[in-house]
Write a structure and sequence with these properties.
Blueprint lengths: L15 H10 L2 E5 L8 H11 L3 E5 L7 E2 L2 E2 L13 E4 L6 H11 L3 E4 L6 H9 L3 E3 L4 H9 L21
Parallel strand pairs: 1-2, 1-5, 5-6, 6-7
Antiparallel strand pairs: 3-4
Length: about 170
């Protein structure tokens, strides 16, 4: 299901086809706020997405020049020299407007704000510039849920079924 930019998105209840479509078309993810610490959520998400075939470019000014999971860390989105499909935001909500402006500047197609990150004005700005937006969700969790994978906390999720899985 392709959504037209003019179609409204309910940021409190995303349609599975909307999320599935975003994940399907994404190959390269810029992760703003990626951490080199193995025990941080961004590290887990990066590792998971890499394992699913996504290229994840870590963006963190404090770790610029280092490597996280085999990828060189850049200081900002504008330092990335390849096309980016999705910008995954692992920063506080008040950082979203500046990140959205950089995402627009680099030609990203999607801004995905992690769990706990929501900024409606930044989302409106991104949508007005033609980007798709997801807020307060995790691409790792959504990918896993939409693929029917059973994770550590997968008990009683309602994803186990006798029906065939829909490919992401």
């Amino acid at each position: 299901m392709d959504r037209r930019v003019s179609d409204p998105v309910n940021h409190d209840d995303y349609d599975d086809e909307y999320l599935r479509g975003l994940l399907r078309r994404t190959k390269t993810v810029a992760m703003v706020g990626a951490s080199p610490n193995w025990n941080r959520p961004s590290y887990f998400v990066m590792k998971y997405l890499q394992g699913k075939g996504f290229r994840v470019i870590p963006v963190n000014p404090r770790a610029a020049g280092e490597e996280i999971l085999g990828e060189p860390v850049v200081a900002s989105l504008t330092d990335i020299g390849v096309p980016v499909d999705m910008v995954d935001v692992f920063r506080a909500s008040d950082a979203a407007p500046a990140i959205v402006e950089d995402a627009i500047r680099i030609g990203a197609k999607t801004v995905w704000m992690q769990i706990g990150v929501r900024h409606d004005q930044a989302a409106a700005r991104a949508a007005a510039a033609g980007l798709d937006v997801v807020m307060n969700r995790c691409p790792k969790i959504e990918f896993s849920r939409l693929c029917g994978e059973l994770g550590w906390s997968g008990v009683n999720t309602g994803i186990i079924s006798s029906r065939r899985r829909k490919p992401v």
